[in-house]
């Protein structure tokens, strides 16, 4: 089954019909990528996604000769061609070893939490695994496939990665935060993917007088926390109801405040960029 959905995708600035995707798209290792959420036609936090794409390639020893404006224009093209306003668009850069790299833009299956999930939270489980290079957003298809199989088996929303030291670092496709009393805890930046949503949350917490502590979180310490949530492009700020058999509060006032201020941030960004595009 093709990863690309809807009617059209772009490869190296050329528009193709999605039925040709599997013939055009070649997944090479290493490759870097970004998934950007489109809301009301606006690619959310595009500037940060661009910076992370460049950073991911740099961490692997490659230089991407691409500009923010080029990415913006190609997203606008694929949005117009597919006549869509709310979806996730994926950017992939392949052939990093070559002087001429291949760049793809395509829409992917996009599922967002419903109101009930934001109210009651979601179930997650612990998974022994870690990224090869946590700070780089690199495609690791084997790990992704194994986790997807386990997600279906466990009927859970997300898997929390546990490294060889017994520390919980992040979700398989999200970042992770815990709350204890009036303090927010998250794994050290060097141990996780620097999520765009994660960075915004940390900044917003600072601006709103909420203390955030980066520290290693052991599996053995889980029962000391009051609440937890994951963050990411699709889930935004999503409460966790339970980690395996361990229950967590989804009505924590601090958690609810963070959800509110992050939604306000999204609305402000969209309002501003709707005026400028």
Automatic annotation (TrEMBL):
Entry keywords, A to Z: Pyridoxal phosphate
UniProt KW Amino-acid biosynthesis keyword: no
GO BP annotation list: amino acid biosynthetic process; carboxylic acid biosynthetic process
Superkingdom, natural source: Bacteria
SUPFAM superfamilies: D-aminoacid aminotransferase-like PLP-dependent enzymes (SSF56752)
GO cellular component terms given for this protein: cytosol
One MF annotation (Gene Ontology) recorded for this entry: catalytic activity
CDD domains: PLPDE_IV
The protein's required cofactors: pyridoxal 5'-phosphate
Pfam families on file: Aminotran_4
Signal peptide: none
InterPro entries: Aminotrans_IV (IPR001544), Aminotrans_IV_CS (IPR018300), Aminotransferase-like (IPR036038), BCAT-like_C (IPR043132), BCAT-like_N (IPR043131), Class-IV_PLP-Dep_Aminotrnsfr (IPR050571)
Recorded family membership: Belongs to the class-IV pyridoxal-phosphate-dependent aminotransferase family.
Name of protein: Branched-chain amino acid aminotransferase
């Amino acid at each position: 089954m093709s990863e690309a959905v809807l009617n059209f995708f772009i490869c190296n600035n050329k528009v193709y019909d999605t039925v040709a995707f599997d013939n055009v798209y070649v997944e090479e290792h290493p490759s870097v990528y970004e998934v950007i959420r489109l809301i009301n036609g606006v690619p959310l936090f595009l500037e940060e996604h661009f910076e992370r794409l460049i950073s991911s390639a740099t961490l692997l020893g490659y230089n991407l000769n691409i500009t923010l404006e080029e990415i913006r224009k190609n997203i606008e093209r694929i949005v117009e061609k597919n006549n869509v306003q709310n979806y996730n668009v994926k950017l992939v850069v392949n052939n990093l070893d070559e002087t001429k790299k291949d760049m793809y833009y395509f829409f992917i299956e996009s599922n967002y939490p419903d109101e009930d999930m934001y109210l009651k939270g979601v179930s997650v489980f612990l998974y022994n695994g870690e990224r090869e290079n946590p700070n780089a957003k690199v495609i690791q298809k084997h790990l992704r496939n194994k986790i997807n199989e386990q997600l279906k088996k466990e009927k859970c929303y997300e898997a929390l990665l546990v490294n060889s030291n017994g520390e919980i670092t992040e979700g398989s496709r999200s970042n992770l935060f815990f709350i204890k009393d009036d303090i927010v805890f998250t794994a050290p930046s060097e141990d996780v993917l620097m999520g765009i949503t994660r960075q915004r949350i940390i900044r917003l917490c600072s601006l709103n007088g909420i203390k955030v502590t980066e520290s290693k979180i052991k599996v053995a310490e889980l029962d000391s926390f009051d609440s937890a949530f994951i963050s990411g492009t699709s889930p935004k700020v999503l409460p966790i109801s339970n980690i395996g058999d361990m229950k967590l509060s989804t009505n924590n006032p601090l958690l609810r405040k963070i959800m509110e201020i992050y939604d306000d941030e999204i609305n402000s960004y969209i309002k501003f960029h709707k005026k400028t595009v």
